[in-house]
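Quick one, tokens below. Sequence please?
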């Protein structure tokens, strides 16, 4: 069992919702990211999602686009991201790490080389945003053979047959995009999530994580009522953009933002457990 599957499986058995924060590697500088990752774990992260900066992050809104631009300007690359993961693993060999990125940098490195190096660095899963269900059979086996889970995206517009096709190639967890749009958008209709998540659960036993639009502790708690995991990105990346020149202040801001979400999710989990026992 992978480190990612093990962590999510344990949380599910405990009736707890996973909290998965995102940051862009190399923002604002390559040597800052590992410290930010440790701060997020201290604040209650169960899994870390680390973005690989790319010149055309089409699924991301202006906040994360800005992070990618800053990271690339600072010299970050896919190789650099793997170096950051290896640095993080010197102190933390327990927290699962999922890389989120696009096919182009992986193709440039070579899929086999990437998979081998990612596993060696300590990566547990890979979410390739622009990998289609048709491309997955040519990519996923290489990732799996290196011990990497292939996390897959499902959108609100995805039909039943395609959900089944996507889930057949997924590993670790399924990432459900909570609305039609890009990361960092303001609207999050939690009331519509439950039915969509049940559609996915009918096709897979993997945990379902929800992201895009989670910006407040209240959002996080609401999502945790219906999903197995809550992904938060832009709210954290904004803190890095605001405080990045002062790393101590950035780490403090990241801890404050994420710990508030952790408390809200835990309170919601406790309420649901009490309701089940009643």
């Amino acid at each position: 069992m992978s480190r990612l599957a093990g962590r999510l499986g344990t949380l599910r058995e405990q009736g707890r919702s996973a909290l998965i924060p995102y940051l862009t590697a190399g923002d604002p500088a390559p040597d800052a990211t590992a410290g930010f990752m440790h701060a997020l774990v201290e604040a209650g992260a169960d899994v870390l999602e680390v973005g690989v900066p790319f010149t055309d992050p089409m699924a991301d809104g202006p906040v994360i686009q800005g992070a990618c631009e800053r990271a690339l300007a600072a010299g970050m690359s896919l190789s650099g991201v793997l170096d950051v993961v290896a640095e993080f693993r010197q102190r933390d060999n327990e927290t699962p790490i999922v890389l989120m990125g696009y096919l182009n940098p992986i193709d440039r490195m070579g899929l086999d080389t990437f998979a081998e190096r990612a596993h060696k660095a300590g990566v547990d899963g890979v979410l390739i945003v622009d990998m289609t269900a048709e491309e997955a059979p040519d990519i996923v086996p290489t990732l799996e053979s290196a011990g990497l889970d292939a996390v897959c995206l499902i959108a609100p517009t995805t039909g039943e047959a395609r959900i089944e096709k996507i889930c057949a190639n997924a590993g670790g967890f399924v990432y459900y995009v909570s609305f039609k749009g890009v990361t960092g958008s303001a609207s999050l209709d939690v009331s519509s999530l439950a039915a969509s998540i049940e559609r996915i659960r009918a096709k897979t036993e993997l945990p379902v994580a929800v992201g895009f639009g989670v910006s407040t502790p209240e959002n996080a708690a609401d999502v945790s009522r219906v999903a197995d995991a809550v992904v938060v990105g832009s709210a954290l990346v904004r803190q890095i953009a605001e405080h990045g020149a002062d790393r101590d202040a950035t780490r403090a801001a990241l801890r404050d933002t994420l710990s508030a979400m952790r408390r809200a999710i835990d309170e919601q989990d406790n309420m649901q457990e009490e309701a089940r026992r009643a």
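The beta strands are 18-24, 48-51, 97-101, 125-128, 149-154, 174-177, 208-211, 229-232. The chain has twelve helices and eight strands.
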